[in-house]
DNA sequence: TGTGTAACCACGTCTGGATT
DNA sequence: AATCCAGACGTGGTTACACA
């Protein structure tokens, strides 16, 4: 009766979807007849779009997994790893391994049959070639030979300053020494929970120079980082907190760029772990060389003492912290204390520990392994704290030595990774970790601490008064500044896009709930900040502020503590409005770039608006970027939004400025946007190419368009549909989504917002700029004023 | 008129093993 | 190592129909 039913291969399906996309907008029914399939088939097909397009084996007709997908996943990882180590694999070896994994993963029903093996190979596209014995064996070099031969050749063009070594090390930052602290804690709970680990990448040169640490943690946006402006280390995160190829390449690329600026070329030695694989990566100023396999432990300077020394300092500081708390008579056990140590604390401690490692130690380690010939130097020794025996201290330093620091190497790691990937998780839950709250000391407390140091230190023989004075001055400078930030934010140096001459110009935006009151108070305290407009009175000033442009009233050229600052006042409501709807994009646009949020009284609405603003920026950028782009392209696009809407349209000096803002602040951008990008279903991150891919289908673009801020949507409708004919916004956006020039339309919409607002804002700038302000300014005044104002409300 | 879905069952792929 | 077998399993193309 009915014709024989068809069955499509994944390639067929992909072709069908592509063909459907090329069709003009018609009903599924019509489209289906054109494609020669029933409507319902087309409907299901479109629903499977993502799965079909992501499939890698197009000749198959169904995507099916074997009976024990976990075993196969583990096996694939193991094979990958073996390949990257140039190990020879025979079919029987692989089968043996499969059996082992099955046993370890508790897959009792799984049998390593010939049939299974065949299908497994087909599914994964694996072929086992017969290898000839010698090739692999030839790779095995003795450390001595390598040193005399290859190494001498490699290092010829490089001086010791430019010969570097990098190595990862796992760090259980909450680990305690075996016995000393445990007497007061119940051991049962102790052990496991304290195993939170971070991985740090240490890099140093043969001359003793150290590179900023690269720390990899579990959490992308640890809560304890919230209030921190700049981390003293580079930070990244992934679930197992270990080095991946992607992170490593990212780190290298950035370093390469810095070196290019310095016109410096270096030779970097790393061990040959899969995470260090450099294929498809080109670096201009870094030559990456690998230590021969199985000789890493003898030849790697970092492994031979450098990292150990850093860890010794780290653990010593940890002991000091814990012991002090215990001595203060805190009822908490050592375990409790250690649990309160946040990731931030650990990172800061680790940074200091790394800074403490002496250049001579580093040089000596390089000499010891024989990579450089130089004179023997004094090795520093880190004495164990008095409370801990030397032996125990040694053990404590080494507790994390054998932890995996990069993608899987041992079977256990593979199994753990597979378990995690399949959502079974090992028994450790993060709940405990999440509860570590960060206590930021108040400014008064910090000031007091400085005072205590000043009076106390001379009594213990500290006599570098210059240093102390300088330190106190620097700290107070910062403290004073931060106190005047009534609600909001400042731009990090060099990112403020408006002023060209003043490199160190700090720009603050205060969002205040009631601008009239604020101006009244501020006029009384700091009349000199205001231009001639002050004669008009606070009400008039606020009305100028609110009535025109972006709703920001600026006082410029305000001297504060030897610096010139400027500050803008905006009402919180106006700001939220702009963040949510992009009415002017003036404030919203600035907040697309990383800025420091100084003090936030708990305004949930504002916080939500800030996030919404970032999301909008990402969405708008997606629409304007091609299907595939790099992270840098994305940030560039975002940074360009507030200029003319599209970075490509920015000309001349401004272009390089945007470029620089992004380059100098890559890390801050990543910190700002990483969680948003991760949560966004529209974008797929392809780590292999370091590229992001975004859904460019009409449906995808439509959802993106619908998510744009209201004002932008209105502008777009206006562009597409001149007033008069009243079409539905949704209807028009649907049209735009089909349009191949969709990105251009979005760009025009944004630039129409930016143009109209920046004109009014700069006109107002003329009125509010006034004459040069020469009168000195005290931050404390504003602080007092602010306090006074708060009391009254 | 349009799209989405429950149910049905053809058929691709699974399994352990035998055979070439 | 590759191919084949027979039976089981479960995906997904299709039909008929509900729903806006």
Automatic annotation (TrEMBL):
Superkingdom of origin: Eukaryota
BP term (GO), one: cardiolipin biosynthetic process
Cofactor(s) annotated in UniProt: Mg(2+)
Main EC class the enzyme belongs to: transferase
EC number: 2.7.7.41
HTH CENPB-type domain location: 59-130
Gene Ontology molecular function, alphabetical: DNA binding; phosphatidate cytidylyltransferase activity
Membrane topology: Peripheral membrane protein
Keyword tags: DNA-binding, Lipid biosynthesis, Lipid metabolism, Magnesium, Membrane, Mitochondrion, Mitochondrion inner membrane, Nucleotidyltransferase, Phospholipid biosynthesis, Phospholipid metabolism, Transferase
Location of the protein in the cell: Mitochondrion inner membrane
A single GO cellular-component term on record: mitochondrial inner membrane
Main location group: mitochondrion
Family matches, as InterPro entries: DDE_SF_endonuclease_dom, Homeodomain-like_sf, HTH_CenpB_DNA-bd_dom, Tam41
Pathway terms, separated by semicolons: Lipid metabolism; Phospholipid metabolism; CDP-diacylglycerol biosynthesis; CDP-diacylglycerol from sn-glycerol 3-phosphate: step 3/3
Function text: Catalyzes the conversion of phosphatidic acid (PA) to CDP-diacylglycerol (CDP-DAG), an essential intermediate in the synthesis of phosphatidylglycerol, cardiolipin and phosphatidylinositol.
Family: Belongs to the TAM41 family.
Protein name per Swiss-Prot or TrEMBL: Phosphatidate cytidylyltransferase, mitochondrial
Species assigned in the record: Paramormyrops kingsleyae
């Amino acid at each position: 009766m009915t014709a024989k039913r068809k069955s499509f291969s994944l390639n067929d399906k992909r072709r069908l979807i592509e063909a459907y996309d090329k069709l003009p907008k018609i009903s599924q029914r019509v489209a289906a007849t054109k494609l020669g399939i029933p409507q319902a088939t087309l409907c299901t097909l479109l629903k499977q779009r993502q799965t079909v397009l992501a499939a890698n084996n197009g000749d198959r007709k169904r995507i099916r997994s074997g009976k024990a997908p976990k075993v196969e996943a583990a096996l694939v990882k193991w094979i990958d790893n073996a390949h990257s180590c140039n190990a020879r694999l025979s079919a029987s070896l692989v089968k043996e391994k499969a059996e082992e994994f099955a046993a370890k993963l508790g897959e009792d029903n799984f049998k390593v049959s010939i049939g299974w093996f065949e299908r497994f190979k087909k599914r994964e596209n694996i072929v086992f070639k017969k290898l000839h014995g010698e090739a692999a064996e030839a790779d095995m070099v003795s450390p001595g030979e390598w040193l005399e031969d290859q190494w001498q050749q490699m290092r010829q063009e490089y001086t010791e300053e430019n010969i570097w070594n990098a190595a990862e090390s796992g760090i259980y930052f909450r680990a305690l020494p075996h016995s000393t602290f445990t007497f007061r804690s119940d051991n049962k709970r102790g052990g496991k929970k304290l195993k939170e680990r971070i991985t740090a990448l240490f890099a140093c040169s043969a001359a003793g120079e150290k590179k900023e640490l690269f720390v990899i943690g579990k959490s992308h946006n640890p809560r304890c980082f919230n209030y921190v402006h700049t981390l003293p280390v580079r930070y990244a995160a992934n679930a197992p907190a270990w080095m991946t190829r992607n992170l490593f390449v990212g780190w290298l690329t950035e370093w390469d760029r810095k070196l290019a600026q310095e016109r410096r070329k270096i030779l970097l030695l790393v061990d040959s772990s899969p995470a260090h694989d450099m294929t498809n990566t080109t670096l201009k100023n870094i030559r990456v060389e690998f230590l021969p396999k199985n000789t890493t432990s003898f030849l790697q300077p970092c492994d031979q003492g450098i990292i150990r020394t850093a860890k010794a300092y780290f653990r010593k500081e940890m002991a000091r912290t814990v012991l002090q708390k215990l001595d203060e008579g805190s009822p908490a056990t050592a375990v409790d204390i250690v649990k309160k140590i946040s990731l931030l604390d650990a990172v800061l401690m680790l940074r200091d520990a790394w800074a403490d490692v002496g250049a001579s130690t580093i040089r000596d380690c390089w000499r010891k392994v024989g990579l450089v010939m130089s004179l023997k130097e004094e090795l520093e020794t880190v004495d164990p704290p008095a409370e801990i025996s030397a032996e125990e201290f040694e053990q404590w330093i080494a507790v994390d030595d054998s932890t995996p620091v990069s993608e899987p190497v041992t079977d256990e790691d593979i199994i753990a990774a597979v378990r995690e990937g399949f959502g079974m998780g090992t028994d450790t839950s993060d709940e405990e970790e999440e509860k570590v709250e960060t206590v930021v000391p108040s400014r008064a407390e910090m000031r007091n601490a400085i005072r205590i140091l000043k009076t106390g230190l001379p009594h213990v023989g500290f006599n570098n008064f210059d240093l102390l004075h300088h330190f106190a001055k620097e700290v107070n400078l910062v403290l004073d500044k931060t106190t005047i930030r009534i609600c909001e934010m400042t731009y990090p140096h060099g990112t403020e896009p408006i002023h060209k001459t003043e490199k160190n110009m700090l720009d603050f935006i205060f969002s205040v709930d009631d601008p009239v009151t604020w101006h009244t108070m501020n006029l009384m305290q700091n009349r000199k900040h205001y231009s001639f407009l002050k004669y008009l009175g606070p009400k008039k000033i606020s009305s100028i502020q609110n009535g025109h442009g972006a709703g920001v009233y600026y006082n410029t050229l305000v001297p504060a503590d030897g610096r010139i600052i400027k500050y803008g006042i905006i009402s919180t409501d106006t700001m939220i409005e702009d963040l949510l709807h992009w009415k002017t994009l003036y404030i919203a646009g600035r907040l697309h770039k990383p800025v420091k949020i100084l003090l936030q009284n708990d305004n949930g609405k504002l916080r939500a608006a800030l996030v919404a603003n970032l999301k909008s920026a990402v969405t708008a950028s997606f629409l304007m970027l091609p299907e595939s782009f790099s992270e840098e392209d994305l940030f560039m696009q975002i940074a360009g939004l507030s200029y003319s809407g599209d970075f490509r349209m920015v000309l001349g000096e401004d272009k390089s400025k945007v470029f620089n803002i992004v380059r100098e602040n890559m890390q801050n951008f990543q910190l700002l946007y990483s969680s948003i990008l991760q949560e966004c279903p529209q974008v797929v991150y392809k780590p292999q190419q370091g590229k992001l891919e975004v859904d460019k289908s009409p449906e995808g673009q439509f959802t993106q368009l619908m998510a744009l801020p209201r004002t932008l949507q209105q502008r777009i409708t206006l562009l597409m549909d001149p007033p008069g004919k009243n079409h539905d916004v949704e209807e028009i956006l649907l049209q735009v989504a089909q349009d191949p020039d969709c990105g251009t339309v979005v760009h025009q919409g944004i630039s129409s917002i930016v143009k109209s607002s920046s004109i009014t804002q700069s006109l107002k700038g003329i009125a509010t700029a006034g004459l040069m302000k020469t009168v000195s300014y005290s931050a404390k005044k504003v602080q007092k004023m602010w306090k006074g104002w708060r009391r009254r409300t």
